[in-house]
Design goal:
Layout lengths: L29 E2 L5 E2 L1 H14 L3 H14 L1 H11 L2 E5 L3 H14 L5 E7 L26 E6 H4 L10 H9 L7 E8 L15 E6 L23 E4 L4 H7 L7 E4 L9 H4 L5 E9 L1 H10 L5 E6 L9 H7 L7 E5 L2 H5 L2 H11 L7 E5 L7 E9 L5 E9 L2 H14 L8
Parallel strand pairs: 3-4, 4-5, 5-6, 6-7, 7-8, 8-9, 9-10, 10-11, 11-12, 12-13
Antiparallel strand pairs: 1-2, 13-14, 14-15
Helix pairs in contact: 1-2, 2-3
Length: 421
């Protein structure tokens, strides 16, 4: 099934390195050959201007490299920006050239590290071109984010276990409490993620946790939950008792996305009480499950789910009765089934009157399913000149990640109720 991939940062993100992460300190002032001291702020402004004027990230990197090699005065600030974001494609020439420079002087500048082409243990004799031990994690004192992607840049992972070397190195070398973000879709056991026990500042976590022990405890490998007091965004492959107990016991997660199976664990009411976004687009939701979700997460503003077949793929009146309890529900997306595609625009406008019972609801996305490019219908609510709510339907192609991002931005910027058109 062709699902829309989770939102990933591109290999390079133009402009992310600008800001206090690359700011100079007053002690970084440089002395020209004439003896004149150039303030660090001036040096930083010169380098920033070169960076800003570049037409692309590739050009910016090329210009920064030239600055770094042309002047000792500019070298430090140019390298500070150039190495703040590192793409490390294992087995490629770029990685082989980058590693020695990181070890010699630039590892301290790295803020965002993306590791590509990581996968299972290679056959004997082929390990040398895939080694990650060249990365000096112990020198990356300013590291904030690590992303790890599979072979083939995010393709489906096979049954082989991932190479544990990277995670051993992270456990041994990474400084405590510096990460705010960790993204990895490889299927990992809790023991392979043990380095995260020393990263209590994590705010965004994306992980595919494979059960290897139980919350009830195991004599050989006792269960140990991860403590993330600042965790606010969590993306997981599946949500069950084990995953919830591992990541959400001591957290107040605000945004939760589940790629596959979703079940409500024990103590879900306490774990999900702060949720404002719940994305379970590929998990069929029964009436019973929907009632439990609404009861446990009363503050939901964005809700994405798939109707279980027991709803007969129709908008049952009881569905609105349940959703009406979510007083802050602002954006709703539902996968309905084939009925949704066979319903004309006028019928959707009629259904909109039922959605009006959800007083805070602003937009509704209805589709057969949420596969990328699938036909969908949106209903957008506006207040007309008579101060009454109108719903305007239109057909679109499904791009669920983009739709969710748009709703988050709209809600974030929205200070007043929907204004008249």
């Amino acid at each position: 099934m062709k699902r829309e991939p989770r939102s990933k940062k591109p290999k390079t993100q133009r402009g992310r390195r600008v800001g206090k992460d690359t700011a100079s300190s007053r002690d970084d002032s440089q002395r020209l050959g004439s003896g004149m001291v150039v303030p660090a702020e001036i040096i930083g402004m010169i380098v920033d201007e070169v960076d800003f004027q570049a037409a692309s990230q590739v050009e910016a990197n090329r210009l920064l490299c030239r600055l770094a090699h042309s002047s000792r005065v500019l070298q430090k600030e140019a390298e500070r920006r150039l190495y703040s974001e590192i793409n490390f494609p294992i087995g490629e020439l770029m990685a082989q050239k980058t590693a020695p420079i990181l070890r010699s002087r630039t590892a301290k500048y790295v803020r965002y590290l993306t590791i590509w082409n990581y996968g299972p243990v290679l056959r004997r004799g082929r390990a040398s071109d895939r080694i990650v031990s060249a990365l000096p994690f112990h020198l990356m004192t300013g590291l904030k984010s690590i992303e790890v992607y599979l072979d083939g840049e995010g393709g489906e992972f096979d049954s082989q276990s991932p190479d544990p070397q990277l995670f051993t190195l992270l456990d041994q070398g990474l400084q405590e409490n510096i990460l705010t973000e960790f993204i990895c879709d490889l299927p990992l056991r809790s023991s392979e993620l043990s380095f995260l026990h020393k990263q209590r500042g994590i705010r965004f976590l994306q992980a595919n946790l494979v059960p290897s022990d139980s919350p009830d405890g195991n004599p050989d490998e006792p269960f140990r939950p991860f403590i993330f007091p600042k965790l606010c965004k969590l993306n997981v492959n599946g949500m069950d008792e084990y995953t919830a107990s591992s990541f959400m016991t001591e957290s107040k997660v605000v945004e939760l996305s589940v790629m596959n199976g979703f079940t409500t664990p024990r103590n879900w009411a306490s774990m999900a009480a702060n949720l404002q976004l719940l994305d379970i687009a590929f998990s069929p939701v029964t009436r019973r499950s929907l009632k439990e979700i609404v009861r446990c997460s009363p503050h939901l503003q964005i809700f994405v789910f798939k109707l279980h077949e027991e709803w007969s793929m129709h908008l049952d009146a009881t569905l609105i009765d349940i959703l009406e309890e979510l007083k802050n529900l602002n954006a709703l997306a539902m996968a309905l089934g084939i009925t949704a595609l066979e319903t004309d625009v006028q019928s959707f406008a009629t259904l909109a009157r039922e959605f009006s019972r959800c007083r805070a609801l602003h937009t509704v996305l209805l589709s057969y399913d949420f596969q990328l490019g699938q036909t969908a219908m949106t209903l957008d609510r506006v207040i007309n000149a008579e101060q009454k709510a109108d719903w305007f339907p239109q057909r679109i192609e499904v791009h669920l990640g983009q739709w969710i991002a748009e709703q988050l931005m709209r809600i974030y910027n929205q200070k007043d109720p929907v204004k008249p058109s």
